Amino acid sequence: MMKATFAAGCFWGVEESFYELPGVIATRVGYAGGTLEHPTYQQVCSDTTGHAEAVEVTFDPARISYQQLLKVFWQSHDPTQFHRQGPDVGSQYRSAIFYHSDEQRRLAEESREALNCSGRYQRSVVTEISPAAPFWEAEAHHQQYLQKNAGGCGF
């Protein structure tokens, strides 16, 4: 099994993009890319910890490739929006790929460059590509939130 970590706005929707893909073994939402150990949702939402809301995907590379996960990542959000996705604003909502190996880094950079050159967007892709650092799991009520709460309302 391998891991991939992505940030693309509110982690509820990002997780939903990956949750039921064939070959994805597990997902969990949490916080990546910041400086504070064991951050809480409230701390991350203060936009002072440097963390992004992220999803960690455990996958079977014999059933789904990292390239396929990247394709889902790029299709699931607007990677040209700096520190936001739609109405969600702040660095915690940034577009980011946190790579777990040199191969993941290479593939992420190649896919970002291909997207930039594709003409799909009028603006440049601003997605950060950084080494995976500690991933801090979010509170239990955030895990598979959209699976548990139809429509995402009620939090």
Can you describe what's shown?
- The chain is built from five helices and eight strands, in the order βαβαβαβββαββα.
- Helices cover 28% and strands 25% of the residues.
- Helix 4 links the parallel strand 6 (95-99) and strand 7 (128-131).
- It has a single domain (2-152), classed as Peptide Methionine Sulfoxide Reductase, Chain A, CATH 3.30.1060.
- The strands form two sheets. It has a six-stranded mixed β-sheet with strand order 7-6-1-3-2-8, with helices on one face. It has a two-stranded antiparallel sheet with strand order 4-5.
- It is globular and about 35 Å long.
- The protein has helices spanning 11-19, 41-45, 66-75, 102-117, 145-148, and strands spanning 2-8, 24-32, 52-59, 84-85, 88-89, 95-99, 128-131, 136-137.
- The relative contact order is 0.24.
- Helix 3 packs across helix 4.
- The mean pLDDT is 94.
- It has 155 residues and is of the alpha+beta class.
- The mean pLDDT is 94
CATH class: Alpha Beta
Our measurement of the CA-to-CA distance between the termini, rounded to an integer number of angstroms, reads 33 Å
Approximate shape: globular
* CATH homologous superfamily title: Peptide methionine sulphoxide reductase MsrA
Enter the CATH topology name.
Answer: Peptide Methionine Sulfoxide Reductase, Chain A
